[in-house]
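Q: Here's a chain of 459 amino acids. Please give me its 3D structure as tokens.
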Amino acid sequence: MLKQTQINYMVTLEEPRLLEYLKNRDLSELLSIQSDLKKHLNFGENLSPKNKNDIASTLVYIEAIINGLSQAEDINPDEEFINISQFKPLSSNELIETLGLTIKKDEINRLLTFLAHLSAYTEESQLNISFNAPSSSGKSYIPMEISRLFPEKDVIQVAYCSPTAFFHSHGTFNKEKQGYIVDLSKKILIFLDQPHTMLLQHLRPMLSHDKKEIQLKITDKSQKQGLKTKNIYLIGYPSVIFCTAGLTIDEQEATRFLLLSPEINQEKLREGILEKIKKDSDRSSYLYNLEINSERKLLKDRIRAIKQESITEINIVNPQLVEHMFMKRIKKFKPKHQRDIGRITSLVKIFALLNIWFREREEGALIANDEDIKDAFEIYDKISESQELNLPPYVFNLYKDIIVTLYKEKNNNELDSSPRGATRQEILKKHYQVYGRYLPDWQFRQQILPMLETSGLIT
């Protein structure tokens, strides 16, 4: 066990000397040092804020080096033994509360984003999510924060990327097939701040789960041979999360995704600002306290344990209940309802997977019960109105909060024989009054109005 003088010496070393000191220790020594420092931080007496900050900063360096050594020695944390007796049934509200440590408000968004991540560990029930909202609204923050809970090797984050670049960077050349194999099985694919949907257009068959192995052909330009056709083989179904500030969505993409938008109300923005101040004021302590949070650690262990179970089949024990609950919500059938019911059954199976140790199994298949069905419909009901119209919640809320409110104000909340409509300028002005930010006229004309007209909400 480290003595007080050793701790004082270590935590006051400059970064270069600290790294040199730590790199001369083997893995077992580093784990022992890490344990002693954590005990000192949690139970040490008369520690000043500076002492705590120095210890937390040192622990960050130690953890980074331990992770590096673990990889070098082929220690796979995903394969470590996890004691499943520590887990208990986890409800949606408890999960939302744990995720709320870093994501303020956005309760439905953070729950659905987590479930989409978890769906990567199912065989064919992966969810796809599209976050559509203006810039600086936090659309990328939610999936990035959720992804920190999952094994790093399972998450692929992509900023701007052309289809050709994506297939080259994530594919390996196969001589037998004379093409690039891109294996996305059990992967979480996050596209950050994409300016367009060109790559998604190439991935449509995969997003629809048409076939587990799909062959694509792309053209690649080389200096000597000019344009050349290349074979791409996509294998497996990832869960896909697409983030963009563009509000225009092709109907083919819209039917393949759950359309979400971060909340932009004043209360959410206020809490987000306070959390940012807290994080930036003492980043090391913030991150350390986050990592030692018992509920967060338990959730990360739960995710790894679920992955280790390698579930290949999840069956729904009561399809009649699914049928009854879905049919009573539908007034008139549309082709897209065939995909909507698929999303709901996927949610049912993901809820069962979340509580895998508290569900029955039959011949190796996990059984989703009535509780899972009710949980799935409860969460889907909260987003179904905008999904039914193929509108991002931001656009649908703008319609309700701005256009409908303004229309009622102009008509004294009554309908008469000659109702008065609202002009674009009046709508833009009302938008600023409600949301505290300007809506570009071009975006309103070119993106929002056509979507509202197509959905039949305005004429």
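Q: Can you summarize the key feature?
A: The first strand starts at residue 128 and ends at 132.
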